[in-house]
Amino acid sequence: MSDENKKKTILNCSSTDPNKIFPMKYKWARQHYKDGVANNWVPEEVSMQRDIELWKSRDGLSEDERRMVMWNLGFFSTAESLTANNIVLAIYRHVTNPECRQYMLRQAYEEAVHTETFIYCCDSLNLDPEEVYNMYETIPSIHEKDEFVVKMTESIFDPEFKTDSTENVQKFVHDLVGYYVIMEGIFFYAGFAMMLSMLRNNKMVGVGEQFQYILRDESVHLSFGSDLINEIVKENPEIWTDEFKATIAENIKKAVELECAYADDALPRGILGLRPDVVSQYVRHVADRRLERINLKPVYGDENPFPWMSEIIDLSKEKNFFESRVTEYQQGGSLGW
After folding, report:
1. What is the pLDDT of residue 34?
2. Burial degree of 99 (CB within 10 A; 0-12, 13-18, 19+)
3. What domain count does the chain have?
4. Active-site residue 120, yes or no?
5. For residues 96 and 26, what is the distance between their CA atoms, to the nearest angstrom?
6. Which of 3, 37, 109, 120 maximizes the CB count within 10 A of its CB?
7. Is 16 part of a structural domain of the chain?
């Protein structure tokens, strides 16, 4: 490793020229950037015609199915804006490393694509945008999830905040966990299971395909965020105290409670092979994987009740032109699941 690279750190690197990406030290950040580019897509590539016909038909969807779709559009539409704000207004300012910043710029673009996705879905289905985009205020289970993340990421939004002490580096990692591990790694996953179940049952396939693409993007976001957290801890081991680890674990357990409450609210009765208790089991299984990813012990021990999730995540590289206008990913087979 060159002397210049030895001096590089994720945070507080006064010797780093933010305009000079070479020589690279954090090759994992570069790989995440390449994976993001390989997954490139835009919502307009997905035909919504079948969804429009199904949504307009009186007997095409049950009231519970419509409720589930609306709850997920309502949560995701504002959550994507919240995640974009975290990157652009807070995290980017404190991460001084140029290759990590390059990935975050890519992620910010993907968040914009995701926001456009929900505009596209609302326009296609002729939904009331006021209803959809205000659900984070009118639906308690959605509001509580958003508020939990907002409160968890307060430190990094303070314009006076600096990562210039052990205490503040610890606060920064605390907030990164709230954003990457909890918001993107837990709060999105009950919704993914619900909407991909719709796709699996050949209902709302256009919306389902877009959620499928978003899930692939979010998987890379989560991987980058976990690597970022682990690297900061590696470079600042004094922050990784037993007390701090216990705090993070408690935050994740609280997030699981909120996500399970959201699943109960979105699915008051079982549909499409989904029951609130089974979705909650999936959320606990996912939370254990998130804990392990940042080198903490799992706490639940639940098995994955949706083995089909790993299969449905993988997008087919070839699509029938008359069924869909989706273009294949540049390197669709480059990601392992």
Report:
1. 97
2. buried
3. 1
4. yes
5. 12
6. 120
7. no
- What does each C-alpha distance from 169 to 166, 188, 201, 247, 268 come to in angstroms? 5, 26, 46, 15, 41
> Could you list the mean pLDDT of each consecutive 10-residue stretch along the chain, which spans 337 residues?
68 68 91 96 97 93 96 95 88 93 96 96 96 96 96 88 96 96 96 95 96 95 98 98 98 98 94 91 97 98 91 52 41 40
Here the tokens at position 74 are 């309502």
Catalytic site residue from 103, 120, 180, 213: 120
CA dist., res. 305 & res. 315, Å (int): 21
Can you name the residues that pair with 11 across neighbouring β-strands?
Answer: 95
Is residue 178 within 8 A of residue 152, CB to CB? The reply is yes
Tokens read off for 196: 């991909």
CATH value at residue 84? 1.10.620.20
Contact residues for 146 (Cβ-Cβ < 8 A; gap 6+) = 78, 79, 82, 136
Q: Within a domain: residue 151? A: yes
Q: For residue 82, is it within any domain?
A: yes
What Cα–Cα distance (Å) separates residue 78 from each residue in 119, 188, 218, 303? 11, 12, 15, 30
Please give the helix or strand (H or E) that residue 230 lies within, else none. Answer: helix 205-235
For residue 14, is it within any domain?
A: no
Domain residues for the domain of 175 are: 47-313
The Cβ of residue 273 has, within 10 Å, a number of other Cβ atoms equal to 12
pLDDT at residue 314 in the model: 58
How much is the pTM? 0.91
CA distance 148 to 186: 12
